[in-house]
């Protein structure tokens, strides 16, 4: 059917429907009505699936039991925010946890707290992921002999402030740090731990992406690019290993109240890390790619179903917000002043 035939069909369908229902609509209104109906039909499977994932699966306990996966869990970026919440919620289930992050004192405090509260064993590995690839040998040594059933690849860094790609201070080092923290850990930690999970025929790997990786994100291009890597890498692996018994999941949050987001007060759009992670753990084994929280799911739905041509419109809106943030960033102004002085 070519476009002219399709157009004639729409006019005919519109005319027939109008004669049945006495609806007095212009052709533009007809197009709007048909487009909306088509969109609703297209979204029905999504809504049914979401209903199952949010309400039915948690109530029926269809999600994975991390205790059955192995005695230990490994969480990167465990000293703060979403990683800390994963470490706490996994320890609450009675699974021992290896905590990996930069600040040893924060990790030691958390390890003590988890041991006292939940009676689990803990291990602290203090590394800086920006230091290079040798740290993976250190991590591997620390993990030797542990039966690791769950891996949470959570470590990730953002921009100190939003900026044009070529105007970031120390841009080459910044690009390297973004790749060292947002791309290498998810790749190398998975490569390190997946074989032992496959040999046991069970395990869970959770990789934390970001909503900003699902659409083009001007003034945050490195972050958006690295998070797109995480998501695509995870989805591909999840299919590649679907028969191995290992569950591989991409978690794609929008804003969560943490140090990174700078949102100090949780709200209905921005949950606390604890609330987010509690819900996220109930999607493991249910969804291989999830944004967990209802408002975050709606944002993804909007751009994936093309509502209001969201992908382009959404990126443009983000660009405008970031341009505003850039112009008003005190951090950026301080860096610019400093560089003028030197
Ligand atoms: N918060 C959000 O709104 C949001 C939205 C979408 C996606 N995400 C993703 O969620 C993940 C966690 O974010 P978050 O908000 O929880 O971040 P956060 O509160 O800033 O915590 C980051 C964690 O990573 C560790 N870390 C940072 N740089 C490190 C380095 N060079 N070497 C080792 N550890 C390092 C930090 O350890 P130290 O405390 O020792 O520095 C901390 O434990 C990230 O992958 C992020 O991209 C977050």
- How do the helices and strands follow one another from N- to C-terminus? HHEHEHEHEHHEHEHEHHH
Number of helices: 12
Spatial strand sequence of the major β-sheet: 3-2-1-4-5-6-7
- How does the helix and strand content classify structurally? alpha/beta
- Bound ligands, each once: NADP nicotinamide-adenine-dinucleotide phosphate
CATH topology of the largest domain: Rossmann fold
Q: Using DSSP, what is the number of strands? A: 7
CATH superfamily of the largest domain: NAD(P)-binding Rossmann-like Domain
The average pLDDT is: 92
The N- and C-terminal alpha carbons lie at a distance of 67 Å
- Give me the Rg, rounded: 23 Å
- Low-pLDDT residue intervals, each spanning 5 or more residues: none
Give the fraction of residues assigned to helices.
55-70%
Q: Biggest sheet, open or closed, and with what strands and sense?
A: 7 strands, parallel
- CATH class value of the largest domain: Alpha Beta
Gross geometry: globular
| CATH architecture name of the largest domain | 3-Layer(aba) Sandwich
Overall structural domain count: 2
Strand-residue fraction?
A: 5-15%
Description:
The chain is α/β, with parallel strands linked by helices. The chain folds into two domains: 3-18 and 27-57; 66-325, Rossmann fold, CATH 3.40.50.720. It contains twelve helices and seven strands. It has helices at 3-21, 27-60, 81-92, 104-118, 135-143, 171-182, 184-200, 221-240, 273-281, 294-304, 310-328, 330-341, and strands at residues 72-76, 96-101, 122-126, 148-153, 203-208, 246-251, 289-290. A seven-stranded parallel beta sheet has the order 3-2-1-4-5-6-7, with helices on both faces. Helix 4 (104-118) links the parallel strand 2 and strand 3. Helix 3 packs parallel to helix 4 (104-118) and helix 3 crosses helix 9 (273-281). The longest helix is centred in the first third of the chain and has 34 residues, at 27-60. It is globular and about 75 Å long. Bound molecules: NADP nicotinamide-adenine-dinucleotide phosphate. NADP nicotinamide-adenine-dinucleotide phosphate binds at residues 77-83, 101-103, 106, 128-130, 154-157, 181, 208, 210, 253, 255-256, 258-261.
């Amino acid at each position: 059917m070519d476009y002219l035939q399709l157009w004639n069909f729409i006019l005919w369908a519109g005319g027939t429907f109008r004669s049945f229902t006495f609806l007095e609509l212009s052709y533009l209104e007809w197009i709007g009505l048909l487009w909306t109906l088509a969109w609703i039909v297209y979204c029905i499977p999504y809504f049914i699936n979401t209903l199952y994932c949010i309400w039915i699966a948690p109530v029926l306990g269809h999600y994975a039991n991390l205790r059955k996966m192995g005695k230990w869990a490994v969480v990167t970026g465990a000293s703060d925010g979403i990683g800390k919440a994963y470490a706490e919620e996994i320890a609450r289930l009675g699974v021992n946890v290896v905590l990996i992050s930069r600040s040893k004192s924060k990790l030691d405090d958390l390890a003590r707290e988890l041991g006292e509260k939940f009676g689990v064993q803990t291990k602290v590995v203090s590394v800086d992921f920006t230091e290079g690839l040798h740290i993976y040998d250190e991590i591997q040594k620390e993990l030797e002999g542990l039966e690791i059933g769950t891996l949470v690849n959570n470590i990730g860094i953002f921009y100190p402030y939003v900026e044009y790609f070529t105007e970031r201070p120390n841009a080459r080092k910044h690009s390297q740090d973004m790749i060292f923290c947002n791309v290498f850990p998810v790749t190398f930690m998975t490569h390190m731990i997946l074989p032992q999970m496959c040999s046991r025929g069970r395990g869970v790997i959770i990789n934390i992406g970001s909503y900003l990786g699902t659409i083009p994100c001007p003034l945050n291009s490195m972050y958006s690019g690295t998070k797109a890597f995480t998501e695509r890498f995870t989805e591909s692996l999840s299919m590649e290993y679907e028969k191995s018994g290992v569950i591989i999941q991409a978690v794609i949050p929008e804003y969560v109240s943490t140090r990174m987001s700078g949102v100090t007060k949780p709200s209905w759009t921005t949950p606390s890390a604890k609330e987010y992670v509690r819900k996220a753990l109930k999607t493991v084994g249910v969804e291989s790619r999830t944004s967990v929280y209802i408002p975050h799911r709606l944002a993804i739905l909007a751009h994936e179903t093309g509502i209001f041509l969201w992908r382009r419109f959404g990126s443009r809106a983000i660009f405008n917000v970031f341009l505003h943030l850039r112009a008003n960033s005190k951090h950026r102004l301080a860096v610019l002043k400093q560089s003028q002085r030197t």
